[in-house]
Write a structure and sequence with these properties.
Elements (H helix, E strand, L loop, with lengths): L3 H4 L1 E4 L3 H20 L8 E7 H5 L1 H4 L1 H8 L10 H14 L1 E4 L3 E4 L2 H4 E4 L9 E8 L5 E11 L2 E4 L21 H11 L3 H9 L5 H22 L16 H10 L8 H18 L3 E4 L8 H12 L1 H4 L3 H25 L4 H4 L5 H15 L4 H13 L17 H21 L8 H14 L12 H4 L4
Parallel strand pairs: 2-5
Antiparallel strand pairs: 1-9, 2-6, 3-4, 6-7, 7-8
The structure holds iron/sulfur cluster.
Iron/sulfur cluster binds next to α19.
Amino acid sequence: MISTFDIFSIGLGPSSSHTVGPMRAAAEFAETLDKQGRTELVQRVQVDLFGSLAATGEGHGTLIAAAVGLENVRPEAVEPDDYTAASERIRDHGVLRLSGHHEIPFSLGKDIVLRPLTILPRHPNALRLIAYDGSGQELLSETFFSIGGGFVVREGAAEPSGVDRPQTESQGFSSGAELLEQCEQTGLNISGVMLRQELQFRTEVQIRVGLKRIHDVMTDCVERSVREDGHLPGGLKVRRRAKKWFDELSQEDPERAPGMAMDWVNLVALAVNEENANGGRVVTAPTNGAAGIIPAVLHYAMTYIPRIASATQEERDRAVVQFFLAAAAIGVLFKERASISGAEVGCQGEVGSASAMAAAGLAELLGGTPLQVENAAEIAMEHNLGLTCDPIGGLVQIPCIERNAIAAVKAINAARMAMRGDGVHHVSLDQVIETMRQTGADMSDKYKETAMGGLAVNVPLC
Ligand code: SF4
């Protein structure tokens, strides 16, 4: 059973599968060398990137993330400024501090080998790390798969590394039907069932404090982004828009602007994804590319649901936790039954899953029954089916940034539509998740985070 804190984890932009995952894999590799007491023997490390990691690695910052990861730096812990300093030292001076204490020469061009046409059987995002001693003897070789959302699996392992698993016997839920059944049996709503599940990992206080921290990181991300203008890195010359929009919206009279709620939702999504594209601190939700949808819809809930907008701070904090738990329950289903990886199933797995999660969270705060919440998630996913991943230049900018805003508004609409119904609907969440999985399996590799089709080939880099 996956935890809420696996679905929402703190990382760095621009990509959970192509930046956060490779960095974690490299850090684990370095840690293994350290535990084996062989770090000091290492004179050279080679990193082989396969498939999508190689095809779009430059644009996603995969190469430098893997190199910094070798310093045993973790994406959830490193300060963005420290990450930049380490990146510059490695890139400009060719000095890598293996495990943080053993200096070796390292060249991004020579020591990282790109193999975009080689797809390893388990997953299209794979990397192999090999450490050599001074005589060229291999000391350690490990292969990892970055399976989306920052999750990393070692070759031969069944489970992602670092994922907490409950120590006690748990029924859990592995389908939407089981989730609804548990709601029925216990009288709990979907967030309540997820909380019950989560209590096997941590105490309730730890859960509330942890989710408050997740919310704070999301809020800080928006606040940082609306102070920044200029262009995003990567050569596409994409202008940051969040600051200008924020300055304009802050001056407008909400009473006179009918589209105000939508404008703010768009702004929050844009702000998060611009910060992500800039390599800043974001929360995977459930991935970095889709990181703006949940904060944007949560902003809508906190601002435009009158009961919550006028509540005490304590009640508002509870609403945030409820939103995250309901959204995480849906995220777990996508992760377990299909995929949240754009390299595996296209953008429907990233933005579609996030939209469904956000719709579920909002429907719960609007007072939805479990059936209505499940319906909200289903509607949002149904109308993201088939969404391809074709980022221009392999950068998480176009179409990604605007797509988050569109998907956030879609999530709000899905929740509102579900709330007008009684929860009875034709297509179940399980059916739509299975449809997403099958559609992803049928999708050409050109549309799965390889930047070899769609917008990526029709809009030239200038
Ligand atoms: S198109 Fe979608 S899946 Fe692909 S990088 Fe952008 S947000 Fe991620």
